[in-house]
Amino acid sequence: MRSLARLETPPSDSKLPKIRVTAVAPARILTPLWTDNPDKMKMVGDQPGWVTPEDVAQVMIDLVEGEKNIGGTILEVGSTVRRGEPYDDPGPRGGGNFVENDPGYEDDMWSQLKKQLDGE
Asked: Considering the entire predicted model, what is its pTM?
C-alpha cells in the first residue's frame, strides 16, 4: 500500500490522474459473523477491542475526504483511531489497539480451514 503512495503526485507533465491510496486497519469488527455464532463469541468473550462497521465506515470517509490523509496513510481502528507511521511503527500493541485471541481461537481456525479443504 505504501509503495503506491506516490500515485497521488504524478509528474505534472504526464497528464496522469492523481490517485490516493490509503488503508484502514480495523480491530475485530462486531458483525453477525461473530454475534450469530455463540461458539465464536466464547473464544473472544467481552474483551475490549470491538469496533462497529459504522466506526470503520466513518474512518474510510475521513480517509477519502480528509486533506491530511495523503497517499500512504494507514488508519488503525480499535479503541482509538491511530495513524500508522511509515517506519518503525509499534503496531497495534504500541497504539493500545491490540486484541488478544482467547485459547482455542487458532485451533478453531485450523479446524475450519481443514473442513473447507476436505469439502465438508
From this structure: 0.69
The neighbour count for residue 20, using CB atoms within 10 Å, is 16
Structure confidence at residue 10 as a pLDDT band (50, 70, 90):
very high
C-alpha cell of residue 119: 469439502
Q: How far apart are CA 44 and CA 38, in angstroms?
A: 10
Measured over the CA atoms of residue 104, residue 28, residue 53 and residue 113, the dihedral's sign is: negative
Q: Are β-strands 23-26 and 74-77 bridged in parallel, bridged antiparallel, or unpaired? A: parallel
- CB-based contacts of 113, cutoff 8 Å, min separation 6: none
Q: Taking the alpha carbons of 21, 24, 25, 28 in that order, is the dihedral positive or negative?
A: negative
pLDDT, tens digit (0-9, with 9 covering 90-100), for 93-104: 666 666 666 667
Estimate the share of the chain in helix, then strand, then coil, as percent rounded to the nearest 5.
45, 10, 45
Q: Return the ∠ at Cα 10 (arms to 18 and 62), rounded to 5°.
A: 35
